[in-house]
Amino acid sequence: MINTIADVAQKLIAPAKQLANTGIPIHAYVTDLTWLLFLKVANLLGEINQIPAHLSWGVLIKKQGKEQYEYYQKILKELGQHREPYIAGLYAHASTALKNSEQLTSIITTLAAVDVLPIDDLGEVYDTFLEKCTYENDNRLYIAPRSLVDLIVILIQPQLGELIQDPLAGTASFVVAADEYIQVMSDELLDISSTQKNSSPNIIAVEPDLVRQRLALMNCLLHHIDHSQHLPVRWGDSLLSNLQAWPQADVIFSMLVFASTSSSDELENHDASLALLQHIYQTLKPGGRAAVVLPDKVLKAVGPAQQVRSTLLDTCVVQTILRLPYGIFYPHNVLAHLLFFKKGQTAAEKTETVWFYDLRTDKPIFGPYLHLTREHLRPFEMVYGDDPNGQSKRHDEGEGGRWRCFSRDTLAKQNDRLDLCWLQDSNQGINDNLVTGDIWEVLNKTVGDLEDLTDILRVNG
Q1: Whole-model pTM over 0.85
Q2: Are the C-beta atoms of 47 and 150 separated by less than 8 Å?
Q3: Cys staple from 259: which of 156, 196, 272, 355, with CB 3.0 to 4.6 Å?
């Protein structure tokens, strides 16, 4: 196919840089594009009957100039008051960031790129588009690499019929990946009834940021994820909800590196990522399993953070921790670990040993020009094994290896720190939070200079 999914996604993001120069940030551009994309494909998604005829894409594209711009504003206002929950959720409190009709026309023209693809590919296009947007500066989308999300879901192995939760859903990366995994695995099982195969996974996801929640709804819609009883991703704050109202979960995924907006390496007094970690292990049912990405500072701080880690180790079986590489959350300078654990079936079932894998020491520094892929994660995937609870046979590689096992007693002697590192890093002595940003800042400037030079040569050519 000439127009691949990556090609189309790149075309969708193309106007973002030019609009950014006029003061429209990347998340605002993505939001307006999402509203327009829904209007364009509503008929293909089976949603066209939900949209009043006078608010359609067909009417919008027939108008021009100021009239088109004012009509678009009318669409946003009226659809935000729609009775259908999905549409009302997409357009809740909607207000365009576009400043004139020319900017609106540029996005409408850009959306012609999706015409070459079948509707079933739009979910992947949108996913790819969102991930590309994360590498733009000054964004607030906070999207984790899809390769990492896929790995987590594959290792945890969510099953049809299990209750899955994500208390900080972002743009629904885990919701989409878990749904896809369950559907694929269900198709491979011959003894599942047709009724079960056609049922949607039971997922409860919450996102406190309205911008990301809107994008999450669109992401789910394009992946054909629809729950009859509730929206697949709700707008709200998990920490403000009544914990007793949350049903106990079989599986919890969550990316907590962006729970706190502070870029400081010091833990805040009321750190949201720490509070959400507590929420997660309190919400898990006995025997339930979780995979959570946490910032390094939560895993090494003393005081309340140490108390939370100790409780986690004493009430759950923390079986595996992956030390994640530099730069995978660029442009946000945050270092993180991935924790795998399950809730003990009884009070006596708790952590005895923890396996650590170091994927950071002397590994590449990732960023806008080097993306984390499944191949980078493959060595860890191989040693983790096939058992979702980490019970596959494992072998400690010793002090010179990346794969080690430490006892609970060893952790206790180090204030229950969960960011253990035993390998010597050639970058040791460099501030971890600066090394990635500095390198990519220089490269970004260089690329920008080359693009400017190309424009000059093209004009004078």
Answers
A1: yes
A2: no
A3: 272
Q: How far apart are CA 220 and CA 233, in angstroms?
A: 8
Question: CB–CB of 136/16 below 8 Å?
Answer: yes
Taking the C-alpha atoms of residue 264 and residue 326, their distance in angstroms, rounded to an integer, is 16
Read off the tokens for 439.
Answer: 């390198």
Q: For residue 17, count other CB atoms closer than 10 A to its CB.
A: 13
Query: What would the pLDDT profile of 257-287 be if each residue is shown by its tens digit?
Result: 988 766 666 677 678 999 999 999 999 999 9
Only one residue has tokens 């909607």, namely 94
Of the candidates 404, 440, 446, 438, which has an alpha carbon nearest to the alpha carbon of residue 421? 404
Q: Is 428 exposed, middle or buried (0-12, 13-18, 19+ CB in 10 A)?
A: exposed
pLDDT in tens, 104-138: 999 999 999 999 889 899 999 999 999 988 877 66
Alpha-carbon span 334 to 326, nearest angstrom: 8
Give mean pLDDT, residues 225-251: 84
Nearest residue to 375 (alpha-carbon basis) of 320, 330, 325? 325
Q: Which residues contact 400 (CB under 8 A, 6 or more apart)?
A: 423
CB 298 within 8 A of CB 268: no
- Apex 144 CA angle, 274 and 306, nearest 5: 20
Set out the domains of the chain in order of their start, with CATH numbers.
5-132 (1.20.1260.30), 142-434 (3.40.50.150)
pLDDT of residue 459: 47
- Strands 249-255 vs 163-166: parallel, antiparallel or unpaired: parallel
Rounded distance, CA 297 to CA 305, Å?
A: 9
Note the pLDDT of residue 426: 72
- For residues 182 and 158, is the Cβ–Cβ distance under 8 A? yes
C-alpha distances in angstroms, 327 versus 261, 270, 281, 293?
17, 26, 28, 14
Task: Work out the burial of residue 194: count CB atoms within 10 Å of its CB; fewer than 13 is exposed, 13-18 middle, 19 or more buried.
Answer: exposed
Pairing of the two strands 316-323 and 336-343: antiparallel
Q: How far apart, in whole angstroms, are the C-alpha atoms of residue 197 and residue 239?
A: 34
Question: What is the rounded CA–CA span in Å between residue 79 and residue 82?
Answer: 5
Contact 51, 39 (CB under 8 A): yes
pLDDT over 70 for what percent of the chain?
Answer: 85
